[in-house]
Amino acid sequence: MLDTDFFRRWLTAIAGAVEREAARLTELDSAIGDADHGSNLQRGFRAVTDVLEKEPPATPAASLTLAGRQLISTVGGASGPLYGTLLRRTGKALGDESEVSREQLARALGAGVAAVAQLGGAKAGDKTMLDALEPAVAALGTSFAAAAEAAEQGALATVPLQARKGRASYLGERSIGHQDPGATSSALFIAALAETADGTTGGTANGTAGA
Questions:
Q1: Fewer CB atoms < 10 Å away: N or C end of the chain?
Q2: Contact 194/148 with Cβ under 8 angstroms?
Q3: How many CB atoms lie within 10 A of CB 203?
Q4: Which domains does the chain have, with CATH numbers?
């Protein structure tokens, strides 16, 4: 089962991944966006780690909703509202339980992804974060590792797509040939989830932490 500490460690792992990959995310964004995706997420997750230390949440849901609120208030552009909505809606769907299973997290994350799709008016294939998140949610029912692999492959699959939503859509066919930065950062989120589960289970991300 996944407790509050698990979710705190997951969010901290995301923050670490964003710190390491901020330059690459901004480089990807410079080709088809505003060249600020990495720096925006970096600022947001530094704020998330700060607030988690100052206001330790009591439940898994509270961890995600607190992080979501912080992202919305500190991250500029589209990233703040989208990732903030993802985390807050996922948290809301988890309810007030002190521990949740991997299957419960998969369902809750699905609700979060659906909220992101509604907010952005996007769908899979539009060259957005949904191209990584939707396959990750589907694979999370199998294992954490499968979800991470699905998200990574989904992000890579955005390269040949033409963007149909967001800033990149203004480029039309010129957006083809570039990996979507939002899908890439989403893959980082799911990779951090698998790494956190791997640490919990002592060497395997096969989902036994959520059994």
A1: C
A2: yes
A3: 7
A4: 2-210 (1.25.40.340)
